[in-house]
Amino acid sequence: MIATSASYTWDWSSVLSLQSLEIMGRGLLYTLLVSVLALIFGNVIGLIVASIRMSNQKILSGVAYVYIEFFRTTPALVQLIWIFYVVPILFNISLDPITAGVVALSMNAGAFLAEIFRGGIQAVPIGQRDASFVLGLSRITMFWSVVFPQAVRTMLPATGNVFVSLVKDSSLLSVIAVPELTYQAQQLATSTFRPLEVYTLLAVTYFIVAFPLTRGIGRLEKRLRKSSVR
């Protein structure tokens, strides 16, 4: 498939070959894998950090605040490079690229999710908690049975947006040779000498993955909003 535009001749034959598409497909699988893992671990980190942030222990709450602000205000690429290169030196451990990538994305997502969880939990009317204590419910039972189910309504759409961001931010892992989508595209562009075609295909692939997610999140948000009005 060849097309001419100005002084550049577009040639899609090598980029859209079965071998090239298989390479991009493997990269997409790695992208989705690290994104899902980062979302899972990020949720765990976010819930823990949010709980500490809302605690009455000022020192612990302050530590959680510093963690949240550090990871929200520094570039994800810098965090990734620091975790991959500096952490092994400081603690004398070995981190493979995929592990380092998942850790970096998880810690970054955890900071944003912590604020999402904190906002969702604090949005639940205080009267709901007071009523739970009057009924004799423990703090744990009150949280999981009363507060959390209501907080999920506000947290779900924002959590979905974090996942979309993770899919896009996973492209940063190409700098430490994680064989995700962008890394495979870089290798393919080098081997085919068709960078414009390859990166166009890369952009389209990210769009195909992210657009349905953003549309689904938008519909979910509208549905939750309507149900809350009822």
Automatic annotation (TrEMBL):
Keyword Cell membrane: yes
Keyword Transport: yes
A single BP term in Gene Ontology: amino acid transport
InterPro entries in UniProt: AA_ABC_transptr_permease_3TM (IPR010065), ArtM/GltK/GlnP/TcyL/YhdX-like (IPR043429), MetI-like (IPR000515), MetI-like_sf (IPR035906)
Family, as annotated: Belongs to the binding-protein-dependent transport system permease family. HisMQ subfamily.
Keywords: Amino-acid transport, Cell membrane, Membrane, Transmembrane, Transmembrane helix, Transport
Organism: Leifsonia tongyongensis
Gene Ontology cellular-component terms listed: ATP-binding cassette (ABC) transporter complex
A GO molecular-function annotation: transmembrane transporter activity
Domain ABC transmembrane type-1, chain residue ranges per copy: 28-217
Location relative to the cell: Cell membrane
Record protein name field: Amino acid ABC transporter permease
Pfam families: BPD_transp_1
Membrane topology, record value: Multi-pass membrane protein
Major location (coarse): membrane
Organism taxonomic ancestry: Bacteria, Bacillati, Actinomycetota, Actinomycetes, Micrococcales
Transmembrane segments: 28-52, 64-86, 98-121, 133-152, 198-218
